[in-house]
Design brief:
The protein is an alpha/beta fold and 883 residues long. A hairpin with a 2-residue loop joins strand 31 and strand 32.
């Protein structure tokens, strides 16, 4: 192998290059392996075709890993002996890169300061670039029935005996190296597992081997296929009464032809009312074949019936006219209040795209949104609609990804990773709920924002980009509404800060052609469909409730509203920002909170119902244990739960309103595949009166039967350690309020808080019109401008972590000093290093360094930064979450 220099110039020049030779012998690949850098040369075996852009499997050192073929050189690099070059093992997937797609990945890698291979992996379905696994198995020639039969058992260590027993319990006598390492119960010493394996190998009892990467494979299924040429013979023979087929066999062939001449075998047995034996006899006569055919796996399909385009309101029609007039790369913000019919606009905007044999990409922030949206889209466009997100199985994602490569017109609905969907003929990109922070990836690198990547991709594909939201993000609002004015000045907020429209959106990167910026359109849907009113918002001061002796989590107005809801047979939503029962448990005797042993956070109290065994869980690392009866510190039995979560809301409802039927909708209840669809379907069928959930309820869910929304504890959203806290709180409450009153009956919203004077709370209660939304955004701009926070500057968060507290602290200090002494340090301020807000997570100690870039400052090149061994460094450009 040979490593050569690798740069963006090489990327753009060589991808897709065709070798001059008709039978190329060499290929240079980018290897997916820690420590690999540059390109490595491999030999193409005879009979194997490899093109630039193919995903291949190669041996890199002792591991078999995935790699991407970058270029096909005409000769071996100088200084490299042909005999030393390893061969390509296999081609996992043929080329899918277009020129524009390649540019996109390079741009992601450059802007988000990450190695190209990481950007590439983010774009591929899991498993395509997988590496081999080291495994240990029993030597078959020396298999024994009983471990005590070993004559020299006394010479083996305790750890070796443990591993040998474990292997003998396995049906195949075979386990991965990582699994066996975890089975060693001896005191943790360096190399104990390694020494145990070495002993067993020296004794000839086990052997090492490398299991090949298990990449997703195409799924095949038996199909019955009619041979058309044989049908002509059959028809001629039938007319001349010379057919060798029985009457029943002839009926089967005629029925198969009416079905298009092709059916899956299982379908053929049912629809043709026959048996496999009969079909095989017809196949022997040469009239059909039974053979395996590839079958695409797909996510759950909609059961909804066909749907026709709805009659649009005047505002919707004007919005659609503007979208249809967009050509090439143009951007539009569809700012529609909740219930204004944005989805119908999306559907009618996509219809002509499909008619012109192009595809559409629709991104949503949460997996929970895909069932409802998929049902709407499949009702309109049928089997042209596919879903793509991490909730699918590996095989489903692989098949959907390959389906995209076909070039057929289709609609892809997915979460942020779907922005990399390899659609070769893209006609439009839509980001629904564009303000949502779920579009930003925190880890692993690249820490990309799907909205940002969508802009780049729309530019490269020369297609429109449509952003939709009832509560646009501040960055988007400024970019599309630059005429924001100050109440005391006729100058715009941007003018006063010396920024223009393009500068005011630095977190979205710069335009590739700043002298000719792309046209942008602000499209407003200020009213709900059928002129339904927005629900009034009633504010409840929980301090007054406490003074009046109400110590429950439900205010008296909310209690009465819930009672009336159940009596009238209507439905409602109760929102609280946390899952679980309580946020923490503390001892009332010594004051000691019960904390996670792996993280510097309190354990959350979980109890699914009154009879369930209480559990304490960490929402960061997943650690859990039963709730103790006494305090571990002082043995006091007086343990008290504090705070509220979804489980407590449901449990307390069972006490105060036992006749109410509840469904809990949070990440605990929606972990299983299909749970989102199942829970929402149950609620839509009227099987529950109340839906109790977290932020998942705020994101685009359309439930026309909901007449009441209750926000249990708004304060949990207001006081987060983040400059975006007010914006997020206002958006979240405005979104959840918008779930009420979408049907024939008017809605009502009750917000409970201990901070009624907070800016976000006041803005929410004063009204949710688009003009008032602009007033709130203007206040946010005024607060951020003096501090240089986005959109008036950019942030880069450097996150370091390690199992060793002192090591990561020293590494953070050295890195901060290096950043301060760089020539480009004049363009940014270095804040920190400081311990992360949650210092320890999953036993890893964490330190943060925040770079605060000055207005119009170039993005510094941080890709050359290296962290010491054992220290993890994550570079988060334009961070959304500072914790």
């Amino acid at each position: 192998m040979h490593s050569s220099d690798f740069s963006e110039h090489h990327n753009q020049r060589f991808i897709g290059e065709v070798a001059a030779s008709s039978a190329p012998c060499w290929v240079e690949v980018l290897v997916d392996c820690p420590g690999a850098s540059g390109l490595y040369t491999y030999r193409i075996p005879p009979g194997l075709r490899v093109d630039a852009g193919d995903i291949v499997s190669v041996f890199f050192g002792a591991q078999q890993v995935g790699a991407i073929a970058i270029r096909i050189p005409s000769k071996v690099p100088e200084g490299l002996a042909p005999s030393s070059i390893k061969p390509i093992e296999e081609v996992i997937n043929t080329s899918f890169f277009t020129k524009e797609y390649w540019h996109l990945l390079n741009r992601v890698a450059d802007y988000y300061q990450t190695p190209f291979i990481r950007a590439l992996k983010a774009s591929l379905p899991p498993g395509l670039l997988s590496k081999s696994q080291r495994r240990i198995r029993l030597q078959r020639s020396k298999s024994i029935e009983n471990i005590e039969d070993i004559g020299y058992v006394h010479t083996l260590s305790k750890s070796a005996l443990q591993l040998l027993e474990t292997l003998h319990r396995s049906p195949n006598g075979d386990y991965s190296w990582q699994y066996l390492q975890r089975q060693v119960k001896a005191p943790r010493k360096t190399g104990s597992a390694t020494q145990a394996i070495r002993q067993l190998r020296q004794a000839g009892l086990v052997e090492n081997y490398l299991a090949a990467p298990r990449s997703p494979k195409a799924q095949k299924r038996q199909a019955v296929l009619l041979i058309q040429s044989a049908i002509s013979d059959f028809q001629r023979a039938q007319s001349g009464h010379q057919s060798l087929l029985s009457d029943r066999q002839q009926e089967i062939l005629i029925a198969l032809e009416r079905q298009g001449g092709e059916l899956w075998l299982s379908d053929a047995l049912q629809q043709l009312h026959t048996t496999t034996k009969t079909l095989k006899k017809i196949a022997e006569l040469g009239y059909l074949v039974i053979e395996p055919r590839e079958m695409l796996r797909a996510g759950s399909h909609s059961q909804a019936g066909p749907d026709k385009p709805k009659t649009l309101t005047a505002d919707q029609a004007q919005a659609l006219t503007t979208i249809h007039a967009m050509s090439g790369y143009e951007e539009a913000l569809l700012h529609g209040v909740t219930g204004s019919g944005k989805t119908e606009v999306y559907l009618q905007a996509i219809a002509p795209i499909l008619e012109h044999q192009q595809s559409a990409l629709v991104l949503v922030p949460e997996i929970g949104l895909t069932p409802q949206l998929t049902d709407r889209f499949r009702s309109r466009f049928g089997q042209q609609v596919y879903v793509y997100h991490s909730g699918l199985s590996e095989g489903e994602r692989y098949d959907t990804w390959r389906q995209m490569l076909s070039g057929e017109p289709q609609v892809i609905i997915g979460t942020r990773s779907a922005i990399f969907a390899p659609l070769p003929n893209l006609g439009i990109i839509i980001l629904d709920e564009e303000h949502d922070s779920s579009f930003k990836q925190d880890q692993p690198m690249p820490c990309y924002h799907a909205r940002q990547v969508a802009r780049w991709r729309a530019e490269l594909e020369e297609c429109p980009l449509l952003l939709g939201s009832a509560t646009p993000s501040l960055e988007t609002w400024v970019r599309f509404r630059p005429q924001l004015t100050d109440m005391n000045s006729d100058k715009t907020v941007l003018d006063r800060q010396g920024l223009d429209r393009q500068d005011a959106y630095p977190t979205e990167g710069s335009s590739p052609n700043p002298h000719s910026p792309s046209p942008i359109h602000y499209i407003s849907l200020p009213s709900r469909i059928h002129a339904r009113p927005l629900p009034p918002i009633e504010l409840i001061d929980m301090r007054a409730e406490l003074k009046d002796g109400n110590r429950t989590i439900f205010s008296r107005p909310l209690q009465k509203a819930l009672e009336n809801l159940v009596e009238t047979g209507n439905q409602g939503i109760l929102f609280i920002h946390r899952r679980g029962h309580s946020s923490f448990v503390s001892c009332r005797s010594c004051g000691q909170p019960l904390e996670c042993p792996n993280c510097d956070v309190s354990l959350s109290f979980h109890q699914t119902h009154h009879e369930a065994t209480p559990q304490l869980r960490c929402h960061y690392c997943g650690y859990s244990k039963p709730h103790p009866k006494t305090c571990p510190a002082c043995m006091s039995p007086y343990l008290k739960t504090f705070g509220s979560g979804t489980q407590r809301v449901v449990n307390d409802l069972a006490k105060y309103l036992p006749q109410a039927r509840c469904i809990r909708f949070d990440s605990d209840t929606t972990r299983n595949k299909g749970a989102h669809r199942a829970l929402l379907s149950r609620f839509a069928r009227g099987e529950a009166d109340l839906l109790v959930g977290t932020q998942m309820l705020t994101k685009g869910i359309d439930l026309p039967q909901v007449t009441l929304v209750g926000v249990i504890a708004a304060d949990g959203l207001l006081f987060m350690p983040d400059y975006r806290a007010s914006e997020r709180a206002f958006q979240t409450m405005m979104q959840v309020a918008g779930r009420a009153g979408r049907g024939e009956q008017p809605g009502r919203v009750i917000v409970q808080t201990y901070s009624p004077e907070h800016t976000a709370i006041k803005a929410l209660v004063e009204g949710s019109s688009q003009a008032q939304y602009g007033d709130f955004m203007q206040q946010e701009l005024s607060d951020r401008a003096p501090l240089g926070y986005p959109p008036y500057g950019r942030l880069i968060l450097l996150k370091l972590s390690s199992l060793e507290a002192q090591s990561v602290e020293r590494a953070a200090a050295r890195l901060a000093h290096r950043l301060e002494t760089q020539p480009e340090a004049a363009h940014y301020d270095v804040l920190g290093p400081v311990p992360a807000p949650i210092f320890r997570v999953a036993r890893r100690y964490r330190w943060h360094i925040l770079l605060k870039l000055k207005p119009k400052a170039p993005l510094p090149n941080l890709r050359r930064l290296r962290s010491p061994t054992g220290i993890s460094l994550t570079i988060d450009v334009d961070p959304i979450n500072l914790s």
